[in-house]
Amino acid sequence: MSYRNRPDLSERNILVLLFSVIAIAALALSWPRLPAPGSPLGQFCAALGAVLLLAPLAFVVMKRSGRSENPPAWFIAHVLATSLGSCLIFIHVANGHWLSPPGIVLTLMAFLILQGSLLRVVLSRGFSLLFARSSASTGFNAPAGLDKTALQGVIDDKIALLRQLHPGADEALFSPALEHWLHQPLNSCRYQWLAEREARMVGARAAVGIGLRWSRRIHMLAALGFYLGLIAHVIVMLFFAGYAAAGSEIDWWYITAWGS
User: Fold this and answer.
1) Residue 39 lies in domain
2) Mean of the pLDDT values across residues 153-165?
3) 3-state SS record for the chain
4) What is the model's pTM?
5) In a domain, 140, yes or no
6) What is the pLDDT of residue 132?
7) 88 pLDDT above the threshold of 90
8) Based on the domain organization, do 198 and 70 belong to the same domain?
9) Are residues 196 and 220 in the same domain?
């Protein structure tokens, strides 16, 4: 697939999706006549929304495993499924209690949507502009005090590791994928450490890259917390309905009422 014809989401489209989610969430949360979270409509929105919010997991697996022939298409599916799924979740929780453990999960979801959109639009734009300036210049300008001998040593170590991790791959473009982390975790860790050391040594170009990497790490940690919280919420509501009801009537579909 050529670069020109590959699918993608522009910054404008991402911002339109973001503001659409915010508008729908505000409408749902301010509409007093929406059914309770445990109603049939509320549970349907919760179930469908939760399934759609699993799309980012599929995106990460396909991207990190290197098995996707079209990563941009998976990214688009990730963004669209997350946008629609979050709207359904906001409808589900509209008349619920925010000051509760599920409220923490909802806060993480809202943070992921906002931070993910800004990460794509703001930091990626800065990253692109940085490389645009570099390509327009007469060549790469090494930062003052750069030890070129040490830098070459780091690159040589990366190339040597790359022969074990993925023979034939381009050192300038390679990044350990899921299969590398699973089959050769130590070598993958060493390669990642060398890559970050190289970025720190280069300095000027790494300035935006460091912000991008840390933002992605925060995004992944928040996503991990969200999915763990979502799983815990589903388990409690389905199997520990008595505990979740706290002595009141259980008005949602459940499997067991343990904890009553």
Assistant:
1) 11-135+208-245
2) 90
3) CCCCCCCCCCHHHHHHHHHHHHHHHHHHHHCCCCCCCCCHHHHHHHHHHHHHCCHHHHHHHHHHHCCCCCHHHHHHHHHHHHHHHHHHHHHHHCCCCCCCHHHHHHHHHHHHHHHHHHHHHHHHHHHHHHHHHHHHCCCCCCCCCCCHHHHHHHHHHHHHHHHHHCCCCCCCCCCCCHHHHHHCHHHHHHHHHHHHHHHHHHCCCHHHHHHHHHHHHHHHHHHHHHHHHHHHHHHHHHHEHHHHHCCCCCCCCCCCECCC
4) 0.70
5) no
6) 45
7) yes
8) no
9) no
